[in-house]
Batch of 2 targets.
Target 1
Amino acid sequence: MPLDSATVAALAEQLESCQLRARDTVKITDAHPGMTLADAYAVQDAILARKRDRGTRVVGWKAGLTSPGKMKQMGVSEPCFGFLVDEFVVPDGGDVPMADLIHPKVEPEICFVLKRALKGPGCHIGAVLAATDFVLPGIEVIDSRYRDFKFDLASVIADNTSAARFVVGGRAVAPDALDLRTIGVVLEKNGKPVAMGAGAAVLGHPAAAVAMLANHLGARGQELPAGALVLSGGVTEAVAVEAGDQVCLRVQGLGSVAVQFR
Ligand code: OOG
Ligand code: MG
Protein backbone atom coordinates (compact mmCIF):
# COMPACT_ATOMS: atom_id res chain seq x y z
CA MET A 1 0.00 0.00 0.00
CA PRO A 2 1.84 3.14 -1.18
CA LEU A 3 -0.42 5.45 0.89
CA ASP A 4 0.45 5.92 4.56
CA SER A 5 -2.27 5.91 7.19
CA ALA A 6 -2.28 9.71 7.62
CA THR A 7 -2.90 10.15 3.87
CA VAL A 8 -5.68 7.53 3.92
CA ALA A 9 -7.35 9.39 6.82
CA ALA A 10 -6.97 12.78 5.09
CA LEU A 11 -8.48 11.45 1.82
CA ALA A 12 -11.39 9.90 3.74
CA GLU A 13 -12.04 13.23 5.45
CA GLN A 14 -11.86 15.08 2.11
CA LEU A 15 -14.23 12.72 0.28
CA GLU A 16 -16.70 12.35 3.13
CA SER A 17 -16.96 16.10 3.65
CA CYS A 18 -17.62 16.51 -0.09
CA GLN A 19 -20.46 13.98 0.30
CA LEU A 20 -21.91 15.65 3.40
CA ARG A 21 -21.64 19.20 1.97
CA ALA A 22 -22.58 18.33 -1.63
CA ARG A 23 -19.33 19.76 -3.04
CA ASP A 24 -17.21 18.21 -5.76
CA THR A 25 -13.44 17.69 -5.84
CA VAL A 26 -10.72 16.68 -8.27
CA LYS A 27 -10.19 12.94 -8.43
CA ILE A 28 -7.75 11.76 -5.78
CA THR A 29 -5.52 9.83 -8.17
CA ASP A 30 -4.44 13.20 -9.68
CA ALA A 31 -2.44 13.82 -6.48
CA HIS A 32 -1.78 10.11 -5.73
CA PRO A 33 -1.22 8.41 -9.10
CA GLY A 34 0.48 5.39 -7.50
CA MET A 35 -2.38 4.48 -5.21
CA THR A 36 -3.48 0.85 -5.41
CA LEU A 37 -6.94 -0.71 -5.16
CA ALA A 38 -5.99 -1.79 -1.61
CA ASP A 39 -5.33 1.88 -0.81
CA ALA A 40 -8.67 2.80 -2.35
CA TYR A 41 -10.57 0.29 -0.21
CA ALA A 42 -8.61 1.53 2.84
CA VAL A 43 -9.93 5.06 2.15
CA GLN A 44 -13.48 3.66 1.75
CA ASP A 45 -13.08 1.77 5.07
CA ALA A 46 -11.90 4.99 6.74
CA ILE A 47 -15.03 6.81 5.48
CA LEU A 48 -17.17 4.03 6.96
CA ALA A 49 -15.25 4.26 10.28
CA ARG A 50 -15.97 8.00 10.41
CA LYS A 51 -19.68 7.33 9.87
CA ARG A 52 -19.76 4.51 12.44
CA ASP A 53 -18.12 6.80 15.01
CA ARG A 54 -21.14 9.07 14.59
CA GLY A 55 -23.55 6.18 15.16
CA THR A 56 -24.40 5.55 11.50
CA ARG A 57 -25.46 1.94 10.75
CA VAL A 58 -24.51 -0.20 7.77
CA VAL A 59 -27.75 -1.35 6.10
CA GLY A 60 -26.37 -3.02 3.01
CA TRP A 61 -23.71 -3.42 0.37
CA LYS A 62 -23.48 -2.66 -3.34
CA ALA A 63 -21.70 -3.90 -6.41
CA GLY A 64 -21.11 -1.39 -9.19
CA LEU A 65 -19.83 -1.29 -12.76
CA THR A 66 -21.23 -4.80 -13.28
CA SER A 67 -23.01 -4.23 -16.62
CA PRO A 68 -21.72 -3.29 -20.09
CA GLY A 69 -23.95 -0.17 -20.03
CA LYS A 70 -22.30 1.13 -16.87
CA MET A 71 -18.76 0.10 -17.81
CA LYS A 72 -19.00 1.85 -21.16
CA GLN A 73 -20.58 4.98 -19.70
CA MET A 74 -17.92 5.38 -17.00
CA GLY A 75 -14.92 4.06 -18.97
CA VAL A 76 -14.08 1.59 -16.17
CA SER A 77 -14.26 -2.11 -16.98
CA GLU A 78 -13.96 -3.78 -13.58
CA PRO A 79 -16.63 -4.09 -10.88
CA CYS A 80 -16.29 -2.24 -7.59
CA PHE A 81 -17.93 -2.66 -4.18
CA GLY A 82 -19.21 -0.26 -1.56
CA PHE A 83 -21.34 0.05 1.56
CA LEU A 84 -24.84 1.44 2.18
CA VAL A 85 -25.70 3.20 5.44
CA ASP A 86 -28.92 4.40 7.05
CA GLU A 87 -28.39 7.99 5.88
CA PHE A 88 -28.74 6.80 2.23
CA VAL A 89 -32.21 5.26 2.65
CA VAL A 90 -35.14 6.93 0.86
CA PRO A 91 -38.65 5.44 1.24
CA ASP A 92 -40.46 4.17 -1.87
CA GLY A 93 -42.12 7.21 -3.47
CA GLY A 94 -40.04 9.56 -1.33
CA ASP A 95 -38.40 12.89 -2.16
CA VAL A 96 -34.69 13.53 -2.58
CA PRO A 97 -33.68 17.20 -2.16
CA MET A 98 -31.29 18.19 -4.96
CA ALA A 99 -29.58 20.58 -2.53
CA ASP A 100 -28.15 17.55 -0.67
CA LEU A 101 -26.44 16.19 -3.79
CA ILE A 102 -23.91 17.34 -6.39
CA HIS A 103 -24.97 15.89 -9.78
CA PRO A 104 -27.10 12.81 -9.09
CA LYS A 105 -27.92 10.03 -11.54
CA VAL A 106 -30.35 7.13 -11.15
CA GLU A 107 -29.78 3.47 -11.93
CA PRO A 108 -32.14 0.47 -12.18
CA GLU A 109 -30.99 -2.29 -9.85
CA ILE A 110 -32.03 -5.80 -8.86
CA CYS A 111 -31.64 -6.07 -5.09
CA PHE A 112 -31.14 -9.15 -2.94
CA VAL A 113 -32.02 -9.68 0.72
CA LEU A 114 -30.26 -12.64 2.32
CA LYS A 115 -31.74 -15.13 4.77
CA ARG A 116 -28.35 -16.68 5.50
CA ALA A 117 -24.83 -15.27 5.66
CA LEU A 118 -22.64 -15.57 2.57
CA LYS A 119 -18.91 -15.87 2.88
CA GLY A 120 -16.26 -16.16 0.18
CA PRO A 121 -13.94 -17.39 -1.20
CA GLY A 122 -15.66 -19.82 -3.53
CA CYS A 123 -19.08 -18.19 -3.41
CA HIS A 124 -21.05 -18.81 -6.66
CA ILE A 125 -24.50 -18.14 -8.15
CA GLY A 126 -25.92 -21.33 -6.58
CA ALA A 127 -24.76 -20.33 -3.10
CA VAL A 128 -26.22 -16.85 -3.57
CA LEU A 129 -29.62 -18.15 -4.70
CA ALA A 130 -29.70 -20.66 -1.80
CA ALA A 131 -28.95 -17.87 0.69
CA THR A 132 -31.39 -15.33 -0.82
CA ASP A 133 -34.67 -14.71 0.98
CA PHE A 134 -36.11 -12.52 -1.79
CA VAL A 135 -35.22 -10.10 -4.56
CA LEU A 136 -36.87 -6.74 -5.15
CA PRO A 137 -36.41 -3.75 -7.44
CA GLY A 138 -34.40 -0.73 -6.37
CA ILE A 139 -33.34 2.65 -7.72
CA GLU A 140 -29.84 3.65 -6.76
CA VAL A 141 -29.06 7.38 -6.73
CA ILE A 142 -25.35 7.74 -7.39
CA ASP A 143 -23.52 11.04 -6.93
CA SER A 144 -19.79 10.91 -7.62
CA ARG A 145 -17.91 13.39 -5.52
CA TYR A 146 -15.58 13.92 -8.48
CA ARG A 147 -15.84 16.86 -10.83
CA ASP A 148 -17.92 16.14 -13.94
CA PHE A 149 -18.52 12.55 -12.70
CA LYS A 150 -15.09 11.54 -14.10
CA PHE A 151 -12.93 8.99 -12.30
CA ASP A 152 -10.82 5.87 -12.55
CA LEU A 153 -11.32 2.60 -10.64
CA ALA A 154 -9.18 3.55 -7.61
CA SER A 155 -10.80 6.98 -7.26
CA VAL A 156 -14.36 5.65 -7.44
CA ILE A 157 -13.66 2.86 -4.92
CA ALA A 158 -12.21 5.39 -2.46
CA ASP A 159 -15.37 7.48 -2.96
CA ASN A 160 -17.50 4.51 -1.81
CA THR A 161 -18.48 3.84 -5.45
CA SER A 162 -20.50 7.09 -5.72
CA ALA A 163 -23.09 5.77 -3.22
CA ALA A 164 -25.51 8.51 -2.16
CA ARG A 165 -29.15 7.35 -1.80
CA PHE A 166 -31.22 4.28 -2.66
CA VAL A 167 -34.87 3.27 -2.73
CA VAL A 168 -36.17 -0.30 -2.64
CA GLY A 169 -39.78 -1.35 -2.94
CA GLY A 170 -42.11 -3.14 -5.31
CA ARG A 171 -42.77 -6.84 -4.75
CA ALA A 172 -40.41 -9.09 -2.83
CA VAL A 173 -40.19 -12.42 -4.70
CA ALA A 174 -38.28 -15.62 -3.89
CA PRO A 175 -35.45 -16.06 -6.39
CA ASP A 176 -36.63 -19.50 -7.57
CA ALA A 177 -39.90 -17.93 -8.81
CA LEU A 178 -38.03 -15.89 -11.45
CA ASP A 179 -35.37 -16.23 -14.10
CA LEU A 180 -33.21 -13.29 -13.05
CA ARG A 181 -31.39 -13.35 -16.41
CA THR A 182 -34.43 -12.67 -18.53
CA ILE A 183 -36.46 -10.29 -16.37
CA GLY A 184 -37.06 -7.00 -18.13
CA VAL A 185 -36.20 -3.69 -16.50
CA VAL A 186 -37.69 -0.34 -17.61
CA LEU A 187 -36.55 2.94 -16.06
CA GLU A 188 -38.92 5.86 -16.59
CA LYS A 189 -38.29 9.55 -16.06
CA ASN A 190 -41.34 11.80 -15.99
CA GLY A 191 -43.45 9.00 -17.45
CA LYS A 192 -41.16 8.22 -20.41
CA PRO A 193 -38.92 5.15 -20.69
CA VAL A 194 -35.30 6.37 -20.61
CA ALA A 195 -33.31 3.13 -20.15
CA MET A 196 -34.19 -0.54 -20.42
CA GLY A 197 -32.51 -3.90 -20.24
CA ALA A 198 -32.63 -7.43 -18.86
CA GLY A 199 -31.11 -8.95 -15.73
CA ALA A 200 -28.41 -10.78 -17.70
CA ALA A 201 -26.74 -7.42 -18.39
CA VAL A 202 -25.35 -7.73 -14.84
CA LEU A 203 -22.42 -10.16 -15.24
CA GLY A 204 -24.65 -12.67 -17.08
CA HIS A 205 -26.78 -13.14 -13.92
CA PRO A 206 -27.30 -10.58 -11.13
CA ALA A 207 -26.50 -13.24 -8.50
CA ALA A 208 -22.98 -13.38 -9.96
CA ALA A 209 -22.44 -9.80 -8.73
CA VAL A 210 -23.51 -10.82 -5.21
CA ALA A 211 -21.12 -13.81 -5.36
CA MET A 212 -18.31 -11.53 -6.46
CA LEU A 213 -19.07 -9.16 -3.57
CA ALA A 214 -19.06 -12.06 -1.08
CA ASN A 215 -15.70 -13.22 -2.48
CA HIS A 216 -14.32 -9.68 -2.26
CA LEU A 217 -15.41 -9.42 1.39
CA GLY A 218 -14.18 -12.95 2.12
CA ALA A 219 -10.69 -12.03 0.91
CA ARG A 220 -10.77 -9.30 3.54
CA GLY A 221 -12.04 -11.56 6.35
CA GLN A 222 -15.61 -10.23 6.14
CA GLU A 223 -18.97 -11.70 5.15
CA LEU A 224 -22.44 -10.66 4.07
CA PRO A 225 -24.61 -11.31 7.15
CA ALA A 226 -28.11 -12.82 7.17
CA GLY A 227 -30.57 -10.02 6.43
CA ALA A 228 -28.07 -8.10 4.27
CA LEU A 229 -29.45 -6.00 1.42
CA VAL A 230 -27.27 -6.09 -1.70
CA LEU A 231 -27.64 -3.89 -4.79
CA SER A 232 -26.22 -5.95 -7.65
CA GLY A 233 -25.36 -3.01 -9.94
CA GLY A 234 -27.05 -0.83 -12.54
CA VAL A 235 -28.59 -2.92 -15.34
CA THR A 236 -28.30 0.01 -17.79
CA GLU A 237 -26.32 3.22 -18.01
CA ALA A 238 -27.18 5.76 -15.29
CA VAL A 239 -29.54 8.65 -16.10
CA ALA A 240 -28.98 12.22 -14.86
CA VAL A 241 -31.82 13.87 -12.93
CA GLU A 242 -32.75 17.40 -11.94
CA ALA A 243 -35.19 19.09 -9.57
CA GLY A 244 -38.78 18.22 -10.47
CA ASP A 245 -37.94 14.85 -12.04
CA GLN A 246 -40.01 11.80 -11.13
CA VAL A 247 -38.36 8.44 -11.61
CA CYS A 248 -40.12 5.07 -11.69
CA LEU A 249 -38.50 1.67 -12.15
CA ARG A 250 -40.60 -1.26 -13.38
CA VAL A 251 -39.12 -4.73 -13.17
CA GLN A 252 -40.95 -7.69 -14.71
CA GLY A 253 -42.66 -9.70 -11.96
CA LEU A 254 -41.31 -7.41 -9.23
CA GLY A 255 -43.63 -4.40 -9.54
CA SER A 256 -42.33 -0.87 -9.41
CA VAL A 257 -40.48 1.56 -7.17
CA ALA A 258 -40.34 5.35 -7.42
CA VAL A 259 -38.50 8.43 -6.24
CA GLN A 260 -38.71 12.12 -7.01
CA PHE A 261 -36.23 14.98 -6.90
CA ARG A 262 -37.07 18.43 -5.64
C1 OOG B 1 -19.85 4.14 -9.81
C2 OOG B 1 -20.92 3.32 -9.14
C3 OOG B 1 -21.54 2.36 -10.10
C4 OOG B 1 -23.39 0.72 -10.52
O1 OOG B 1 -24.48 0.26 -10.19
O2 OOG B 1 -22.81 0.40 -11.56
C5 OOG B 1 -22.78 1.72 -9.62
C6 OOG B 1 -20.40 5.19 -10.73
O3 OOG B 1 -20.78 4.86 -11.86
O4 OOG B 1 -20.44 6.37 -10.35
O5 OOG B 1 -23.34 1.97 -8.57
MG1 MG C 1 -25.38 1.16 -8.60
Note: Residues 5-261 form a domain with the Fumarylacetoacetate hydrolase; domain 2 fold (CATH 3.90.850.10).
Target 2
Amino acid sequence: MNKKNITRLTTLNAVIGYPLTQTQSPTLHNAIYDALNINSLLMAFPHPDINALIAAIKTFNVALTAVTMPHKETVLPHLHHLSETVTALKAANTIIQRDGELWGYNTDVDGIEHAFRHITLTQKNTLIIGAGGAARAMAYVLKKHQAHIYWLNRTPDKTHELIEIFGGQTINHDTLNDLTVDIIINTTPVGMYPDIHHSPLPHKFLRHHQTVFDMIYNPLETQLLADAKKVGAKTISGIEMFIAQGIQQISLWQGENLHTPALEHLAQNVLAIKSTDETKI
Ligand code: NAP
Protein backbone atom coordinates (compact mmCIF):
# COMPACT_ATOMS: atom_id res chain seq x y z
CA MET A 1 0.00 0.00 0.00
CA ASN A 2 1.30 3.40 -0.94
CA LYS A 3 1.23 5.16 2.44
CA LYS A 4 1.21 8.58 0.76
CA ASN A 5 -2.39 7.86 -0.29
CA ILE A 6 -3.65 7.51 3.29
CA THR A 7 -5.62 10.59 4.30
CA ARG A 8 -8.23 11.65 6.84
CA LEU A 9 -10.83 10.26 4.45
CA THR A 10 -9.31 6.78 4.22
CA THR A 11 -11.81 4.10 5.29
CA LEU A 12 -10.62 1.58 7.85
CA ASN A 13 -11.39 -2.10 7.21
CA ALA A 14 -10.33 -5.04 9.38
CA VAL A 15 -9.78 -8.75 9.62
CA ILE A 16 -10.72 -10.09 13.05
CA GLY A 17 -9.64 -13.42 14.52
CA TYR A 18 -7.18 -14.92 16.94
CA PRO A 19 -4.24 -15.33 16.81
CA LEU A 20 -4.31 -14.25 13.12
CA THR A 21 -0.74 -15.40 12.53
CA GLN A 22 -1.59 -16.94 9.14
CA THR A 23 -4.02 -14.42 7.69
CA GLN A 24 -3.40 -13.13 4.19
CA SER A 25 -6.50 -10.91 4.13
CA PRO A 26 -4.50 -7.65 4.56
CA THR A 27 -2.24 -8.53 1.61
CA LEU A 28 -5.18 -9.53 -0.58
CA HIS A 29 -7.49 -6.66 0.29
CA ASN A 30 -4.90 -3.88 0.20
CA ALA A 31 -3.59 -5.03 -3.19
CA ILE A 32 -7.14 -4.98 -4.57
CA TYR A 33 -7.90 -1.56 -3.04
CA ASP A 34 -4.78 -0.21 -4.74
CA ALA A 35 -5.69 -1.78 -8.08
CA LEU A 36 -9.25 -0.40 -7.95
CA ASN A 37 -8.34 2.99 -6.45
CA ILE A 38 -10.44 2.37 -3.35
CA ASN A 39 -9.35 4.77 -0.59
CA SER A 40 -9.26 2.20 2.19
CA LEU A 41 -6.84 0.23 4.34
CA LEU A 42 -7.44 -3.21 5.85
CA MET A 43 -5.65 -3.94 9.12
CA ALA A 44 -5.42 -7.10 11.25
CA PHE A 45 -7.23 -6.86 14.61
CA PRO A 46 -6.07 -9.98 16.50
CA HIS A 47 -8.13 -10.41 19.67
CA PRO A 48 -9.75 -13.38 21.44
CA ASP A 49 -12.80 -11.43 22.68
CA ILE A 50 -15.58 -10.92 20.12
CA ASN A 51 -17.26 -8.28 22.33
CA ALA A 52 -14.13 -6.12 22.28
CA LEU A 53 -13.82 -6.53 18.53
CA ILE A 54 -17.44 -5.60 17.83
CA ALA A 55 -17.01 -2.51 20.05
CA ALA A 56 -13.93 -1.54 18.03
CA ILE A 57 -15.75 -2.05 14.70
CA LYS A 58 -18.56 0.23 15.85
CA THR A 59 -16.34 2.83 17.55
CA PHE A 60 -14.05 3.26 14.56
CA ASN A 61 -16.80 2.81 11.97
CA VAL A 62 -15.03 -0.09 10.27
CA ALA A 63 -16.78 -0.53 6.92
CA LEU A 64 -15.81 -4.08 5.96
CA THR A 65 -14.68 -6.73 8.41
CA ALA A 66 -13.33 -10.12 7.35
CA VAL A 67 -14.03 -12.65 10.10
CA THR A 68 -11.91 -15.71 10.72
CA MET A 69 -11.32 -18.33 13.43
CA PRO A 70 -12.48 -18.45 16.18
CA HIS A 71 -15.13 -15.77 15.62
CA LYS A 72 -17.14 -17.00 12.61
CA GLU A 73 -19.90 -18.42 14.84
CA THR A 74 -19.63 -16.22 17.96
CA VAL A 75 -20.12 -13.08 15.87
CA LEU A 76 -23.69 -14.02 14.92
CA PRO A 77 -25.56 -12.59 17.95
CA HIS A 78 -23.89 -9.22 17.26
CA LEU A 79 -25.21 -8.91 13.70
CA HIS A 80 -28.38 -7.01 12.80
CA HIS A 81 -28.93 -8.78 9.46
CA LEU A 82 -27.94 -12.28 8.32
CA SER A 83 -27.71 -13.43 4.72
CA GLU A 84 -29.45 -16.67 3.74
CA THR A 85 -26.10 -18.49 3.68
CA VAL A 86 -25.14 -17.24 7.15
CA THR A 87 -28.48 -18.46 8.49
CA ALA A 88 -27.97 -21.87 6.86
CA LEU A 89 -24.36 -22.29 7.99
CA LYS A 90 -24.63 -20.51 11.35
CA ALA A 91 -21.32 -18.84 10.47
CA ALA A 92 -20.30 -15.50 8.96
CA ASN A 93 -16.93 -14.56 7.45
CA THR A 94 -17.87 -11.00 6.46
CA ILE A 95 -19.46 -8.01 8.19
CA ILE A 96 -20.44 -4.89 6.31
CA GLN A 97 -21.38 -1.86 8.42
CA ARG A 98 -24.12 0.27 6.87
CA ASP A 99 -25.55 3.23 8.82
CA GLY A 100 -24.39 1.73 12.10
CA GLU A 101 -25.97 -1.68 11.41
CA LEU A 102 -23.94 -4.85 10.94
CA TRP A 103 -24.78 -7.11 7.99
CA GLY A 104 -23.38 -10.66 8.03
CA TYR A 105 -22.41 -12.66 4.94
CA ASN A 106 -20.58 -15.89 4.21
CA THR A 107 -18.40 -15.53 1.12
CA ASP A 108 -16.58 -18.85 1.76
CA VAL A 109 -19.46 -20.41 -0.13
CA ASP A 110 -18.88 -18.05 -3.09
CA GLY A 111 -15.17 -18.90 -2.93
CA ILE A 112 -15.91 -22.63 -3.09
CA GLU A 113 -18.37 -22.17 -5.99
CA HIS A 114 -15.69 -20.23 -7.83
CA ALA A 115 -12.98 -22.85 -7.18
CA PHE A 116 -15.28 -25.53 -8.67
CA ARG A 117 -16.56 -23.41 -11.58
CA HIS A 118 -15.04 -25.80 -14.17
CA ILE A 119 -16.03 -29.02 -12.35
CA THR A 120 -19.40 -30.78 -12.44
CA LEU A 121 -20.54 -31.59 -8.91
CA THR A 122 -24.02 -32.93 -9.63
CA GLN A 123 -24.40 -36.65 -8.79
CA LYS A 124 -20.67 -36.97 -8.05
CA ASN A 125 -19.32 -39.04 -5.17
CA THR A 126 -17.34 -36.67 -2.99
CA LEU A 127 -15.14 -37.16 0.05
CA ILE A 128 -14.88 -34.38 2.63
CA ILE A 129 -11.93 -34.76 5.00
CA GLY A 130 -12.67 -32.82 8.20
CA ALA A 131 -15.89 -31.75 9.90
CA GLY A 132 -15.35 -28.15 11.01
CA GLY A 133 -16.59 -24.82 9.67
CA ALA A 134 -14.90 -25.11 6.27
CA ALA A 135 -16.35 -28.61 5.82
CA ARG A 136 -19.80 -27.22 6.57
CA ALA A 137 -19.45 -24.54 3.86
CA MET A 138 -18.21 -27.20 1.41
CA ALA A 139 -21.12 -29.51 2.25
CA TYR A 140 -23.58 -26.65 1.72
CA VAL A 141 -22.30 -26.27 -1.86
CA LEU A 142 -22.25 -30.04 -2.47
CA LYS A 143 -25.83 -30.46 -1.22
CA LYS A 144 -26.97 -27.58 -3.41
CA HIS A 145 -25.49 -29.40 -6.42
CA GLN A 146 -26.90 -32.79 -5.34
CA ALA A 147 -23.53 -34.46 -4.87
CA HIS A 148 -23.17 -37.43 -2.52
CA ILE A 149 -20.89 -36.87 0.48
CA TYR A 150 -18.61 -39.35 2.23
CA TRP A 151 -17.31 -37.90 5.50
CA LEU A 152 -13.87 -38.76 6.89
CA ASN A 153 -12.90 -37.07 10.14
CA ARG A 154 -10.39 -37.63 12.93
CA THR A 155 -13.32 -37.54 15.37
CA PRO A 156 -16.01 -39.52 13.52
CA ASP A 157 -18.79 -38.50 15.96
CA LYS A 158 -18.52 -34.89 14.77
CA THR A 159 -19.90 -35.88 11.37
CA HIS A 160 -23.30 -36.97 12.75
CA GLU A 161 -24.80 -33.49 13.00
CA LEU A 162 -23.45 -32.65 9.54
CA ILE A 163 -25.03 -35.77 8.04
CA GLU A 164 -28.39 -34.74 9.48
CA ILE A 165 -28.13 -31.40 7.68
CA PHE A 166 -26.27 -32.24 4.47
CA GLY A 167 -26.70 -36.01 4.09
CA GLY A 168 -24.07 -38.58 3.27
CA GLN A 169 -22.29 -41.20 5.36
CA THR A 170 -19.29 -41.45 7.65
CA ILE A 171 -16.44 -43.64 6.44
CA ASN A 172 -12.98 -44.62 7.62
CA HIS A 173 -9.78 -45.54 5.82
CA ASP A 174 -10.78 -49.22 5.61
CA THR A 175 -14.15 -48.58 3.97
CA LEU A 176 -12.65 -45.92 1.68
CA ASN A 177 -10.78 -48.67 -0.18
CA ASP A 178 -14.03 -50.10 -1.56
CA LEU A 179 -15.58 -46.79 -2.66
CA THR A 180 -15.49 -44.91 -5.94
CA VAL A 181 -14.74 -41.28 -5.17
CA ASP A 182 -14.75 -38.58 -7.87
CA ILE A 183 -13.85 -35.52 -5.83
CA ILE A 184 -11.71 -35.25 -2.68
CA ILE A 185 -11.77 -32.13 -0.51
CA ASN A 186 -9.40 -31.46 2.37
CA THR A 187 -10.89 -29.10 4.94
CA THR A 188 -8.41 -29.90 7.75
CA PRO A 189 -5.25 -27.87 8.45
CA VAL A 190 -3.11 -30.99 7.86
CA GLY A 191 -0.37 -30.00 5.40
CA MET A 192 -0.47 -26.31 6.24
CA TYR A 193 2.77 -24.41 6.87
CA PRO A 194 4.98 -25.36 8.72
CA ASP A 195 3.87 -29.04 8.46
CA ILE A 196 4.16 -28.95 4.69
CA HIS A 197 5.17 -32.62 4.26
CA HIS A 198 2.05 -33.99 5.94
CA SER A 199 -1.05 -35.07 4.03
CA PRO A 200 -4.54 -35.79 5.42
CA LEU A 201 -4.89 -38.77 3.04
CA PRO A 202 -2.36 -41.50 2.19
CA HIS A 203 -1.45 -41.33 -1.53
CA LYS A 204 -2.64 -44.91 -2.13
CA PHE A 205 -6.23 -43.58 -2.13
CA LEU A 206 -5.63 -41.13 -5.00
CA ARG A 207 -6.71 -41.95 -8.58
CA HIS A 208 -6.04 -40.26 -11.90
CA HIS A 209 -9.75 -39.62 -12.67
CA GLN A 210 -10.27 -37.61 -9.46
CA THR A 211 -10.39 -33.89 -8.73
CA VAL A 212 -8.62 -32.98 -5.49
CA PHE A 213 -9.29 -29.64 -3.76
CA ASP A 214 -7.24 -28.56 -0.76
CA MET A 215 -8.64 -25.57 1.15
CA ILE A 216 -5.17 -24.82 2.49
CA TYR A 217 -3.49 -21.97 0.61
CA ASN A 218 -0.16 -21.94 2.41
CA PRO A 219 1.67 -23.59 0.74
CA LEU A 220 0.00 -23.05 -2.63
CA GLU A 221 0.70 -26.69 -3.49
CA THR A 222 0.25 -28.93 -0.46
CA GLN A 223 1.60 -32.46 -0.11
CA LEU A 224 -1.92 -33.75 -0.89
CA LEU A 225 -2.04 -31.77 -4.15
CA ALA A 226 1.51 -32.82 -5.08
CA ASP A 227 0.55 -36.49 -4.52
CA ALA A 228 -2.64 -36.02 -6.56
CA LYS A 229 -0.70 -34.45 -9.43
CA LYS A 230 1.67 -37.42 -9.44
CA VAL A 231 -1.18 -39.83 -10.21
CA GLY A 232 -2.57 -37.47 -12.88
CA ALA A 233 -5.54 -36.15 -10.88
CA LYS A 234 -6.87 -32.63 -11.40
CA THR A 235 -5.94 -30.32 -8.53
CA ILE A 236 -7.39 -27.08 -7.16
CA SER A 237 -5.50 -24.97 -4.61
CA GLY A 238 -7.23 -23.22 -1.71
CA ILE A 239 -5.82 -19.96 -3.09
CA GLU A 240 -8.61 -19.96 -5.73
CA MET A 241 -11.23 -20.02 -2.99
CA PHE A 242 -9.37 -17.51 -0.84
CA ILE A 243 -9.07 -14.93 -3.62
CA ALA A 244 -12.68 -15.36 -4.78
CA GLN A 245 -14.10 -15.08 -1.25
CA GLY A 246 -12.06 -11.89 -0.75
CA ILE A 247 -13.18 -10.32 -4.03
CA GLN A 248 -16.76 -11.18 -3.08
CA GLN A 249 -16.31 -9.40 0.28
CA ILE A 250 -15.21 -6.24 -1.53
CA SER A 251 -18.03 -6.63 -4.09
CA LEU A 252 -20.63 -6.77 -1.29
CA TRP A 253 -19.12 -3.69 0.32
CA GLN A 254 -18.84 -1.69 -2.90
CA GLY A 255 -22.24 -2.87 -4.19
CA GLU A 256 -20.95 -4.11 -7.54
CA ASN A 257 -19.58 -7.35 -8.97
CA LEU A 258 -15.80 -6.91 -9.06
CA HIS A 259 -14.83 -10.44 -10.16
CA THR A 260 -12.65 -10.31 -13.27
CA PRO A 261 -9.92 -12.68 -14.44
CA ALA A 262 -7.53 -9.69 -14.40
CA LEU A 263 -8.19 -8.97 -10.71
CA GLU A 264 -7.86 -12.67 -9.81
CA HIS A 265 -4.58 -12.79 -11.69
CA LEU A 266 -3.29 -9.71 -9.88
CA ALA A 267 -4.24 -11.19 -6.50
CA GLN A 268 -2.60 -14.50 -7.37
CA ASN A 269 0.64 -12.72 -8.25
CA VAL A 270 0.65 -10.62 -5.09
CA LEU A 271 0.01 -13.64 -2.86
CA ALA A 272 2.56 -15.81 -4.72
CA ILE A 273 5.27 -13.15 -4.34
CA LYS A 274 4.44 -12.79 -0.66
CA SER A 275 4.67 -16.54 -0.23
CA THR A 276 8.09 -16.67 -1.94
CA ASP A 277 9.30 -13.70 0.10
CA GLU A 278 8.42 -15.23 3.42
CA THR A 279 8.54 -18.94 2.42
CA LYS A 280 5.23 -18.93 4.21
CA ILE A 281 2.02 -16.98 3.76
P1 NAP B 1 -12.09 -26.05 12.21
O1 NAP B 1 -13.51 -25.65 12.31
O2 NAP B 1 -11.19 -25.93 13.38
O3 NAP B 1 -12.08 -27.60 11.72
C1 NAP B 1 -10.89 -28.28 11.51
C2 NAP B 1 -11.18 -29.74 11.12
O4 NAP B 1 -9.91 -30.35 10.84
C3 NAP B 1 -11.82 -30.58 12.22
O5 NAP B 1 -12.72 -31.47 11.65
C4 NAP B 1 -10.64 -31.32 12.85
O6 NAP B 1 -10.94 -32.61 13.30
C5 NAP B 1 -9.72 -31.47 11.66
N1 NAP B 1 -8.32 -31.52 12.10
C6 NAP B 1 -7.63 -30.54 12.74
N2 NAP B 1 -6.38 -30.93 12.98
C7 NAP B 1 -6.28 -32.20 12.51
C8 NAP B 1 -5.23 -33.17 12.50
N3 NAP B 1 -4.02 -32.89 12.99
N4 NAP B 1 -5.47 -34.37 11.93
C9 NAP B 1 -6.69 -34.65 11.42
N5 NAP B 1 -7.73 -33.79 11.42
C10 NAP B 1 -7.52 -32.58 11.96
O7 NAP B 1 -11.35 -25.24 11.05
P2 NAP B 1 -12.00 -24.66 9.69
O8 NAP B 1 -12.48 -23.29 9.87
O9 NAP B 1 -12.95 -25.70 9.18
O10 NAP B 1 -10.71 -24.52 8.74
C11 NAP B 1 -10.08 -25.69 8.27
C12 NAP B 1 -9.04 -25.36 7.20
O11 NAP B 1 -9.65 -24.72 6.08
C13 NAP B 1 -7.91 -24.41 7.67
O12 NAP B 1 -6.69 -24.90 7.17
C14 NAP B 1 -8.27 -23.10 7.02
O13 NAP B 1 -7.12 -22.32 6.76
C15 NAP B 1 -8.90 -23.58 5.72
N6 NAP B 1 -9.79 -22.57 5.13
C16 NAP B 1 -9.46 -22.06 3.93
C17 NAP B 1 -10.24 -21.10 3.33
C18 NAP B 1 -9.86 -20.56 1.98
O14 NAP B 1 -10.37 -19.48 1.61
N7 NAP B 1 -9.05 -21.24 1.21
C19 NAP B 1 -11.40 -20.65 3.98
C20 NAP B 1 -11.74 -21.20 5.23
C21 NAP B 1 -10.92 -22.16 5.80
P3 NAP B 1 -11.65 -32.90 14.72
O15 NAP B 1 -13.11 -32.75 14.44
O16 NAP B 1 -11.23 -34.28 15.05
O17 NAP B 1 -11.14 -31.86 15.69
Note: Residues 69, 108, 111, 130-135, 153-155, 158, 187-190, 192, 215-217, 238, 241-242, 245 surround NAP (CB under 6 Å).
